[in-house]
Amino acid sequence: RDTQTLISILEPAVKDGGCVCIVLNTVRDAQETYRAIKAAGVAAPEELFLLHARFPHEVRQSKESAITSKFGPGGDRPAKAIVVATQVLEQSLDLDFDLMVSDMAPADLVLQRSGRMHRHPGTHRPVSMQTPELWVMMPELSASGLPDFGRSRYVYDPYILLRSYIAIKDRDSFEIPDDI
């Protein structure tokens, strides 16, 4: 994953506002991406959030509460925000984003992550974010043509990642629930 490329396509996507969630497979990747987005000034400090499982319990609970108060049902949704998180966000939190960016992960989890978009009816969204979009960050290919899953291979079985990559790589869209 090339964080600078992500920033270069993320910046124009949120130019007119919108709430974006970036789900990465490792805490280290989430921390590095958060710092890079912060340094690039893509979002103001109050518009940028980081959530991962390595925070002490009390800190994590506080961050989850803050994120839920913004993106949960009836939340005080900001006009623009970016949440960088790990898998802690993909289950059990009822959150609503306009755009989801995901690391390559097992296909069922990628689809689970997409379920955090356009979840709450009646939510005001910028014109450019009227249609939910899922961006999957595809791995670089090695000289042999195989995908390099980087640190994700320590989180998920490489075989499952490869099968998921094969299932996703040539897709332009998903129809939920039909494609599950």
List keywords for this structure.
five-stranded parallel β-sheet; single chain; 5 helices; 5 strands; alpha/beta; 180 residues
How would you describe this structure to a colleague?
The protein is an alpha/beta fold and 180 residues long. Helix content is 33%, strand content 14%. It has helices spanning 3-13, 27-40, 57-71, 107-114, 158-168, and strands spanning 18-23, 48-51, 80-85, 99-103, 133-137. A 5-stranded parallel sheet has the order 2-3-1-4-5, sandwiched between helices.
Rough outline: globular
What's the helix count? 5
Low-pLDDT windows of residues: none
Main sheet: strand order: 2-3-1-4-5
Proportion in β-strands: 5-15%
The number of distinct β-strands equals 5
Let me know the average pLDDT.
92
Q: Over the alpha carbons, how many angstroms does the gyration radius reach?
A: 16 Å
H-E order = HEHEHEEHEH
Helix/strand/pairing category: alpha/beta
Tell me roughly what share of residues is in helical segments: 25-40%
Major sheet characteristics: 5 strands, parallel
Straight-line distance between termini:
25 Å
Topology:
Layout (H helix, E strand, L loop, with lengths): L2 H11 L4 E6 L3 H14 L7 E4 L5 H15 L8 E6 L13 E5 L3 H8 L18 E5 L20 H11 L12
Parallel strand pairs: 1-3, 1-4, 2-3, 4-5
Write a concise synopsis of the structure shown.
Helix content is 33%, strand content 14%. The protein is of the alpha/beta class and 180 residues long.
